[in-house]
Each structure stands twice: as C-alpha cells, then as structure tokens.
Amino acid sequence: IRITRPYSCPRATMDEASAAKEAAASANSAAPTIFDKIIAKEIPSTIVYEDEKVLAFRDVNPQAPVHILLIPKARDGLTQLSKAEFRHSEILGDLLYTAKLVAEKEGLKDGFRVVINDGLDGCQSVYHLHLHLLGGRQLKWPPG
Ligand code: TR5
Asked: HIT domain spans which residues (predicted)?
C-alpha cells in the first residue's frame, strides 16, 4: 500500500516495507547523513547561526516564511529523539535555547513553532537529530 504523505516523508516516496527498512537502517547506523556534509561545508547551505556545538541553517524545502533547522554538530549517536540518552540532555537543552535565540534574530516576535520529527510515524527523513524552527505566518493546529 502506498500512503500519500508530504514531500519529505519517507512513506510518500516508497512502499511501507522499504520505508520501514530504510528508517531502521538509518537510525541504527553511524553512516554520515546529508547534514554531516552541511556541517563540513562540503555542500552549501544558508547558515543563520553557528557556535562550537550547534549549527542552524535554512531548510531547503521551507514550510513557512521562516523554516530553519538546528542540529548538533556532533551527532554522538543522536540519530533521533527516541534514541536520546542522559548524556544528550545538555545538547538537547542547547538546541532548544538556540532555537529561541534564532527566533529572536529572525524577528519572530508574534511566536513560532519548534518541531522534532521522530521515526516513520513522525515523518523523519534525515537521521541526525534536528529541530525545525517554523514561523513568519499563522501556523495551524493540529499539524497534519
Ligand atoms: O523530515 P525531517 O524532520 O527528517 O527533516 C529533514 C529536513 O531536512 C526536511 O525539512 C528537508 O527539507 C531538509 N533538508 C533536506 C536536505 C536539505 C535540507 N535542508 C537544507 N539543505 C539540504 N540539503 C542541501 N540537502 C537535503 N537533502
């Protein structure tokens, strides 16, 4: 059965079994993702914030006027939120606080949304943990 999902959702582009297999393989793997290339600046991205631990850049397929991804520079096994361990608490806090700083910098004074997609049901497509910062328009609730 092919389920129609949004562009970035793995289930939109492959059948259910392949999507599940690919997600499991990606989630367990230490293999580099596209985000490693962005961190290494091997492929271009529009970076809006960078420090020694966190990188924030514009999503290539924006779902709102402001759509920024915040990622830990060191993945350290954190492929997705459901794989988080206690040692990741600090970087998780850093990412969330940085989202607030970037929102301020982007002028999102009327509010914004922070999203973490986890796994297949969460529509995760890149297995390097990331926060989506969305804003610049009235967002709807509940999300799809
Ligand atoms: O679906 P999840 O939550 O895993 O989010 C992954 C996000 O990465 C999606 O919103 C994609 O649009 C975004 N993405 C994917 C690529 C990419 C990117 N954002 C910026 N630059 C990108 N490059 C250069 N290549 C991608 N494949």
From this structure: 34-144
- 33 touches 126 (CB < 8 A): yes
Task: Tokens 């990622």: give the residue.
Answer: 71
How far is Cα 124 from Cα 36, in angstroms, rounded to an integer? 16
108-132 pLDDT tens trace: 999 999 999 999 999 999 999 999 9
Give the residue numbers marked as catalytic.
130
Q: For residue range 20-29, what is the model confidence (pLDDT) as tens digits? A: 887 887 777 6
pTM of the model: 0.93
State how far the alpha carbon of 65 is from the alpha carbons of 10, 59, 141, in Å: 23, 10, 17
Alpha-carbon distance of 76 to 105, in angstroms, equals 28
